[in-house]
């Protein structure tokens, strides 16, 4: 899943390449991609991109008319081709090339292909005069990569919340932009169990969680910034310390990384670093 570090890198890539270009057409290969059924893609024809913004795990192409919000979901991504060039190829490690679900073509011949590699469609596009009024953006919680995210704000989010930390970190209405992989990395850095309830954290644990959130994300944003968009997935996978490392030694203590019970292998943790040396019970 692309999370805020990868989506921010993509937004920077598009800011440099799409800004100033005029959209020729948006072609849907899969009609379900369009989430605002009362708006038509033809509204963006002949509109010029004047800016690109990121909102959590979403990117907005702002034009001199309506805005286009791209929500990447679980397995969405983008490929780019300048006029006369082939699209940026996906990671060589991918066994199957992700299918294209929509194409944004520009009048100078450049093209952006939107792809979705999931078993079910998760990428979506929405058209709005003001994309910040769309629920996907309006319902987002604070972005933990901004100065507005403070220890006091985090304290307010976790106090009284009988929700497991792993689930809370991925709850976009609480914190924008964190998904499955970075929530594992954050909790490992904070030395906290993924199944601990937020309401059970003491002051020291809340401080560790704040430091881990800001530290892990800041490092990831810096590391992804100049990585080509077709290599973002591979760079993310290579950077993980516990996520996706089942059965490998923890880089901190050497204990074996285990799957979080009930996650079906999708989430990982270190028993020693995060649970006093005891495996989590199913």
From TrEMBL:
Residues 241-275 form the FPG-type domain. The keyword Hydrolase applies. Transmembrane segments: none annotated. GO terms for biological process: base-excision repair. Pfam families: Fapy_DNA_glyco, H2TH. Residues 2-121 form the Formamidopyrimidine-DNA glycosylase catalytic domain. It comes from Diaminobutyricimonas aerilata. PANTHER family: FORMAMIDOPYRIMIDINE-DNA GLYCOSYLASE (PTHR22993). Belongs to the FPG family. This is Formamidopyrimidine-DNA glycosylase. It comes from the Bacteria. The keyword ATP-binding does not apply.
């Amino acid at each position: 899943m692309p999370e805020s570090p990868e989506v921010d890198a993509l937004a920077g890539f598009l800011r440099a390449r799409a800004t100033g270009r005029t959209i020729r057409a948006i072609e849907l290969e899969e009609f379900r991609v369009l989430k605002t059924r009362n708006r038509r893609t033809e509204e963006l024809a002949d509109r010029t991109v004047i800016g690109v913004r990121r909102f959590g795990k979403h990117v907005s192409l702002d034009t001199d008319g309506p805005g286009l919000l791209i929500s990447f979901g679980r397995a969405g991504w983008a490929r780019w081709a300048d006029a006369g060039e082939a699209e940026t190829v996906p990671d060589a490690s991918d066994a199957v090339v992700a299918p294209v679900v929509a194409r944004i073509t520009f009048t100078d011949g450049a093209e952006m292909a939107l792809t979705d590699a999931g078993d079910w469609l998760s990428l979506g596009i929405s058209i709005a005069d003001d994309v910040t009024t769309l629920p996907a953006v309006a319902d987002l919680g604070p972005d933990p990569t901004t100065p507005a995210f403070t220890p006091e704000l985090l304290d307010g989010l976790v106090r009284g919340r009988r929700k497991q930390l792993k689930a809370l970190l991925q709850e976009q209405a609480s914190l924008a932009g964190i998904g499955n992989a970075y929530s594992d990395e954050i909790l490992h850095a904070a030395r906290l169990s993924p199944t601990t309830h937020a309401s059970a954290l003491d002051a020291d644990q809340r401080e560790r969680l704040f430091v881990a959130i800001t530290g892990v994300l800041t490092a990831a944003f810096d590391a992804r910034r100049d990585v080509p968009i077709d290599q973002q997935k591979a760079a993310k996978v290579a950077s993980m310390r516990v996520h996706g490392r089942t059965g490998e030694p923890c880089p901190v203590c050497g204990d074996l990384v285990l799957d979080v019970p009930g996650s079906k292998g999708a989430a990982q943790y270190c028993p020693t670093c995060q649970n006093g040396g005891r495996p989590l019970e199913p």
